[in-house]
Amino acid sequence: MKVMALIQLKPNDKGRISEIKGGKQICKRLFELGLNKGVEIEVVKNDIGPVIVDLSGHKLAIGRGLANNIIIQA
């Protein structure tokens, strides 16, 4: 299994969140959105602008800076 930042994944790549780098506020906000350790996500779009992921049928747009701090096991 590869471990990489969310921003490095390509569309249709899937993986599980293994770590979120950031302060309490960032981790809390992502937890509220459903993005926490162990959750499986699929990248829908990752070119310019935010990274769009599918989380259990819901689409979420994540800023590129934040996506760089979400570590995925793919």
From TrEMBL:
The keyword Iron applies. The keyword NADP does not apply. Signal peptide: none annotated. SMART domains: FeoA (SM00899). Coiled coil: none annotated. PANTHER family: FEOA FAMILY PROTEIN (PTHR43151), SSR2333 PROTEIN (PTHR43151:SF1). This is FeoA domain-containing protein. Pfam families: FeoA (PF04023).
